[in-house]
């Protein structure tokens, strides 16, 4: 099997599993208990919080553990709207956000929020001038993702943070795809809140965190006990928290070497496709993109058929976000960057890890060429196009 869907989820690293194991069977105490077994779990969560804070240049008491990126996104938006609606009810986001943001915005609109959805250019970048024009006296939050989960485009986060800070507006970023892939310092980037998820960086599923700057006054999201300093109730997922910290430490330790390798493989594969498969369009920014992200649209074919045929060859990829894999609608991200429906339907996203090799990329390129040829050979649209060209 060749696994090329690391934006959907990653394999949990062996050292991460090893770090977690004692907290299932030996040090299994509830971290909120006062006896020694519980205090061992509490020590582990304290250490994990410190580790994650260091990766961001944050303080440990600004890290709140959640069940993952979607919960963190929901918390940031809903709690900000609730806490700051006396100041205003206007939120700015973009049209290419993850559905955890977009669907939360829809929910808030039904409760009186006014949302501005910024356009992006053909590479998926937010226009900073359009952002400035969208700001109103009652704007309370700007939420722009750090890097897009489908096309890999990295946004000008520092500039967005500076604009938000100048206007006294809170800035949240969904960094689920970026955290562990890119160096991030929250103070330098003027980030007030940041969402991240463990399973995107070789950590376990079902664990994430929300960074909340200590100056931000938002309330609890999950009510109940006093866990997470009274802001997020529920017994701490100690094995998950330990695994998330181990994965974060590993990701930032190997980042430079991993990034170099992934960019080499990414650019090599992109070059092969552009040279060898006609009518293939690279989606996303050519250089301002995640090191491991490849996204192409192939004209005259369906992305789902491509995926099935790749799977039959033992190759795992996707046609967009894993969260919308059951949907027949084309990607909202590809439509937002200007692709017509028929081209958006023919998209393929491949996302690499440091374990992939050049030999694998060559094999995938060869298989992909044959699959595209075969599918186009079955397409009446392709047949009509060829006739017109002739």
Key attributes of the depicted protein:
globular; 3-stranded antiparallel sheet; 390 residues; single chain; alpha/beta
Question: Could you please describe the fold and organization of this structure?
Answer:
The chain has 390 residues and is of the alpha/beta class. The chain contains 13 helices and twelve strands. The chain has a seven-stranded mixed beta sheet with strand order 2-8-7-6-5-3-4, sandwiched between helices. A three-stranded antiparallel beta sheet has the order 9-10-12. Strands 1-11 form a two-stranded parallel sheet. Strand 3, helix 5 and strand 4 form a beta-alpha-beta unit. It is globular. It starts with a strand and ends with a helix. The model has no long low-confidence stretch (mean pLDDT 95).
Please summarize what this structure is.
By secondary structure, the chain is an alpha/beta fold. It contains 13 helices and 12 strands.
């Amino acid at each position: 099997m060749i696994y090329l869907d690391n934006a959907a989820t990653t394999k949990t690293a062996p050292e991460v599993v090893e770090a977690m194991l004692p907290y299932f069977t030996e040090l299994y105490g509830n971290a909120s208990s006062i006896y020694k077994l519980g205090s061992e779990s509490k020590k582990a969560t304290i250490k994990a919080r410190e580790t994650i804070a260091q990766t961001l240049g944050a303080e440990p008491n600004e890290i709140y553990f959640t069940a993952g990126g979607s919960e963190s996104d929901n918390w940031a938006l809903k709690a900000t709207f609730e806490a700051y609606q006396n100041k205003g009810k206007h939120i700015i986001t973009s049209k290419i956000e993850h559905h955890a943001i977009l669907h939360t915005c829809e929910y808030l609109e039904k409760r009186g929020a006014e949302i501005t959805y910024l356009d992006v250019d053909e590479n998926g970048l937010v226009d900073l001038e359009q952002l400035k024009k969208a700001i109103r006296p009652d704007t309370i939050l700007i939420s722009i993702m750090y890097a897009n989960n489908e096309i890999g485009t990295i946004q000008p986060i520092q500039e967005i943070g500076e604009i938000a800070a100048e206007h006294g507006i809170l800035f949240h970023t969904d960094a689920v795809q970026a955290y562990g892939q890119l160096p991030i310092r929250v103070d330098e980037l003027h980030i007030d809140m940041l969402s991240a998820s463990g399973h995107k960086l070789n950590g376990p599923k079902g664990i994430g965190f929300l960074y909340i700057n200590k100056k931000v006054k938002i309330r609890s999201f999950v009510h109940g006990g006093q866990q997470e300093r009274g802001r997020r109730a529920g017994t701490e997922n100690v094995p998950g928290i330990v695994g998330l910290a181990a994965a974060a430490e590993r990701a930032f330790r190997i980042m430079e070497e991993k990034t170099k390798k992934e960019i080499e493989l990414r650019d090599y594969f992109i070059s092969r496709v552009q040279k060898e498969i006609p009518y293939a369009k690279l989606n996303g920014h050519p250089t301002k993109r995640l090191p491991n992200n490849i996204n192409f649209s192939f004209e005259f074919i369906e992305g789902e058929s491509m995926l099935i045929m790749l799977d039959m060859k033992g190759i795992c990829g996707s046609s967009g976000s894993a969260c919308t894999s059951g949907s027949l609608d084309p990607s909202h991200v590809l439509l937002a960057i200007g692709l017509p429906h028929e081209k958006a339907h023919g998209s393929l996203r491949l996302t690499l890890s440091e374990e992939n090799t050049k030999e694998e990329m060559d094999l995938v390129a060869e298989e992909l060429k044959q699959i595209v040829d075969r599918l186009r050979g079955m397409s009446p649209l392709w047949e009509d196009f060829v006739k017109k060209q002739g």
